[in-house]
Amino acid sequence: MANIILMLSIMSEALSVPEVSSTLAKNTSAHPVEVSNVATLANMVGGLIVVLAIIFLLAYIVKRLKLVPSSGGVIKTIAVTSIGQREKVVLVEVNGQQYLLGVTSQQINLIDKLATPVDVPISSFASRLKQAKEQQ
Hints:
Layout: H1 2-16, H2 18-26, H3 30-64, E1 75-82, E2 88-94, E3 97-103, E4 108-113, H4 125-135
Antiparallel strand pairs: 1-2, 2-3, 3-4
C-alpha cells in the first residue's frame, strides 16, 4: 500500500511540473512503463485475492463435509448417520463408555447405553472424500 501511495505522489509531482508534463506527453515510451507497473500491481493484488478466496472456500468445504476428525476432548463423536432431513443417530463416547443418541432439531434422546463398545475403523482422508462425493 505504501508503494502505491509513493508511486502516486511521484506521478503527481512529475505531472505538476510543466516541462516534465510536456516531455511525458510527447514521450510515449515513459507512459507504458507506468501503466505496466500499475497493471503488474493489479495482477498481483488480484492473484492474492483469488488465492485467499480459494483457501477460505476449501476451509468451508472441509468444515461442511466434516472431513477433519474432532479434537481429543472428553466427548468424542464416533459415528453419525443421518436418518432424515434434520434427524441423526449419533454414536458418542464419554470416558470409555459409548452412547447411542437420537438427535433432532428440537431434542436429543438416549437410545441405548452400549455394554460392549463398537469398534469403528478409522478411515483415511481419501476414503472420506470419496464417500462424501458419492453422497452428493
